[in-house]
Amino acid sequence: MTRTRKRFIAGAVCPACKAEDSLMVYMEEDKEHVRCVECDYHMSEDDHTSEEPKGKAAVKRDQVIGVFKPE
């Protein structure tokens, strides 16, 4: 039995319930997933859109699930 390593995202706010420091990220089936421990909100690599960001801080969308900014 293998254990999945889950890491919390410091300062992140859940987009659904707005709870701070409740989002954890983990790998499952070679895909990165984010889950809220308060409301069970879930986001995975397949959920994000393929829009290309613009500007100096552009990040390739195939490398991240989302960019979390603490408030």
Key traits:
about 70 residues, mainly beta, N-terminal domain of TfIIb, 4-stranded antiparallel sheet, 4 strands
Q: What's the rounded overall pLDDT mean?
A: 76
The major beta sheet can be summarized as: 4 strands, antiparallel
- Which spans have pLDDT < 50 for at least 5 consecutive residues? 49-56
Number of DSSP E strands: 4
Alpha carbon gyration radius = 13 Å
Derived structural class: mainly beta
The assigned CATH architecture is Single Sheet
Question: Strand order, biggest sheet?
Answer: 1-2-3-4
The total number of structural domains is 1
Give me the strand/helix succession: EEEE
Helix content: under 10%
Q: What count of helical segments does DSSP give?
A: 0
Ends distance: 38 Å
Can you identify the CATH class? Mainly Beta
Question: If you had to describe this structure to a student in words, what would you say it looks like?
Answer:
This protein is mainly β and 71 residues long. It has a single domain (1-71), classed as N-terminal domain of TfIIb. The protein has no helices and 4 strands. It has a 4-stranded antiparallel β-sheet with strand order 1-2-3-4, with no helix packed on it. The protein is globular and about 30 Å long.
